[in-house]
Every structure is written in structure tokens, then in C-alpha cells.
Amino acid sequence: METVFTPWQSLGGGALIGVASVLLMASLGRIMGATGVLAGLLYPANWSDWSWRAAVLAGMVSAPLVISLLTGQMPAVQVPVSTPMLVIGGFIVGLGVTYGSGCTSGHGVCGMARLSPRSIAAVITFMITTGLTVYVVRHVIGG
Is the pLDDT of residue 128 over 80? Predict the structure, then answer.
């Protein structure tokens, strides 16, 4: 398994996430955590709450179409695991989001920027767990 190093795409994506987070906080006073946005879209408190969440989700989903318009081709997506593993991974992430009171985007981008102790602890936990998972998958299991 090889990890492709994409510094410019990563920088651009990170900058767009940061700008979107700042705009959402500045315009609506809301924190941009992807799972919170999705959960509020599925179970909205009211119409105005649903509409901004739908706009954020539409922006996330439409990004590949914008890339296609700019480059003439859809971005390549390779998922090197089976569908059952994706389902198991999604379930584990869902548990983590529930028990961690948020996702990596909410804690890592917005919580860290606000110097939230809970978010700092969550991000440290995410990073350690990620490092251990990569080590086990690549060097112990041999994936």
C-alpha cells in the first residue's frame, strides 16, 4: 500500500475547509463539524436550521463536479477496502463521533481554533489512534 503525497491539493483543500469554517462562524455563529451538519440536516430544529445545513452539504457533494468542470474529468477515487470493511469502519466512526461529541472537522478545525480543552484532547486521541491503526494495518497485518 502506497500513500501518495499531494501537498498542493492538501493545502488547497485545507484552506477551503478553513475558509468555510470561518464563514459559517462569522455569518451564523455555528461550528462546522461535518457529522453535526449532517445530523442536523436529518433531524432539523426548524426550516432555517435545515436550509444552511443543506447548503453546506450541497457544497461538499458538488466539489467533484466543480473539479470536473475545471479539469475536464472527474477526480479519481480509489477505495482499497471491501464494502463490508467500509460499513464496519463507518460504524466505528459513528461510535467515535457519538462518544467524542463531534468529529475531526469540528474538533480539529473549529475546536482547536477556539483553544477548547475538550477538542485538544479529542484531536490528540484521534492522532494517536490514527497512528496506531496505520502501524497495525501496514506492519502487523500487512495490508
Answer: yes
Q: Between 7-28 and 47-71, two packed helices, what is the crossing angle to 10 degrees?
A: 150
Mean pLDDT of the residues in the chain: 87
How many structural domains does the chain have?
1
3-state secondary structure 107-138: HHHHHHHCCCHHHHHHHHHHHHHHHHHHHHHH
Q: How many Å from the N-terminal Cα to the C-terminal Cα in the chain?
A: 7
In a domain, 96, yes or no: yes
2: in domain: no
Cα(60)–Cα(76) distance, integer angstroms: 16
Q: Averaged over 2-12, what is the pLDDT?
A: 84
